[in-house]
Amino acid sequence: MSVALIGLILAAPLMLLIAGLVKLTSPGPAIYTQPRVGLDRRRRGPDRRRSVRDPSESKSRRQNDRGGRIFTIYKFRTMRTDRRAGQVWSSEDDPRVTPLGRFLRATRLDELPQLFNVLKGDMNIVGPRPEQPEIFQELSQNVGNYRERQRVLPGITGLAQVSMGYDRCLDDVRKKVGLDLEYIQGRSAAKDLMIMARTMPVMVMRRMWM
Question: What is the DSSP letter of 130?
């Protein structure tokens, strides 16, 4: 959290500038909010299975299983306001993205407000990317180990984010899940610093569209 606080203090002038530009270049709020699936704190394994004796209770839990705690993520708005749009996968050539939004996405500056999510305890600086609830349910049904990503707090950046771009198919999702699980199994302060260092070229050189 101290990293997030220092980052907010240093980035405050830039964030104010970006907020003003977003407001000036397209109608709508500067900050975009959206529900995301976060950490799953429930106990898993044999102990949890034994604690559920009533089959109807087990069925109810499955039906109400959202994959983790739902939280509100903060980002600079990069799309035109369209309340008709539902939860859909982002793409590199999404026509809803504004010209300024494309720059913010390319440099990942649109994610600076997520530092507030880190301060709130919703996210870490480094971790798997948090997904929208409906898309989470779809992917968890089609990618066998997708829910294992929820064992740790989601992150602003992560091994999968700096290694790959937008998902174009389920195979891309599976590759990213593999990278997320690789990070979770061997995570350390040194690995987090390495991932953060790999994030900087993405922001400065605009090499990847996240």
Answer: P
Kindly report the number of other CB atoms within 10 A of residue 155's CB atom. Answer: 25
pTM of the full structure:
0.80
Reported confidence tier of residue 46, pLDDT bands at 50, 70, 90: very low
CA 179, chain centre distance (Å): 15
User: Could you give the CA distance from residue 181 to residue 133 in angstroms, rounded to a whole number?
Assistant: 20
Instruction: Kindly report, residue by residue over 146-164, the tens digit of the pLDDT.
Output: 999 999 999 999 999 888 8
What is the C-alpha separation between 119 and 151, in angstroms, rounded? 19
Distance CA 180, CA 139 (A): 14
Residue ranges of the alpha helices (H) in the chain? 2-25, 46-51, 55-63, 99-107, 114-120, 133-142, 159-163, 170-185, 189-205
How far is Cα 64 from Cα 58, in angstroms, rounded to an integer?
A: 10
